[in-house]
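Weekly puzzle thread! Below is a chain. First person to post its structure in token form gets bragging rights.
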Amino acid sequence: MSVLASHRPVTLIGGGAFSKDDIDDALALAPVVAAADGGADAALAHGLMPEAVFGDFDSISDHARAVIPAGRLHRITEQEHTDFEKCLSRIDAPLVLAVGFAGARQDHFLAALNTLARRVGPPCILIAGDDVITLAPPRIALDLAAGTRVSLVPMAPASGRSTGLNWPIDGLDFAPDGRVGTSNEATGPVKLSDMAGPMLLILPRATLSTLAAAL
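Winning reply:
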């Protein structure tokens, strides 16, 4: 299996819409660039040469194929997995920041959340509009200011413990068809522990560097 190995965090660019601020914020923390299929064209449009491109190549342009060195193009024809999953499963890095996976195609966005929930590849943060989204690890400490929005969204039955939340989660059972933790609020630094089951942690975009450091 072709793998991009990096001791530095990786910015993964998808084919969906994203802003210059999105890519600038990602690159400030994750300077190595990879792309998912047509995300290679988006990378080139921002003056970036990806170290690796993974996907079934149904959306990458002929121009991108011509200018990106052939050794960096990794075509994966199987259709059992999304391009996002193909990328994450082939990146060996301490952290991935993903842009271009939360645009107009909500089916693609939901599929990306499904991939996060299954813990594919390295820890990954999706930059999604005004939010950053990651899969909550078994424990995490976040240096958040009082009043910061903290949402916990279960992707299957889940539970955990917390300190620093206005509404503690201890003893609560979460599920996609039951209790969810939308719009909780930090009272100061937050600690989550004993997290069991796939729970998405959603924070305001301004906390990106804090979340990245905690992961």
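Puzzle host: Confirmed. Bonus trivia for everyone else. The chain has a mean pLDDT of 95.
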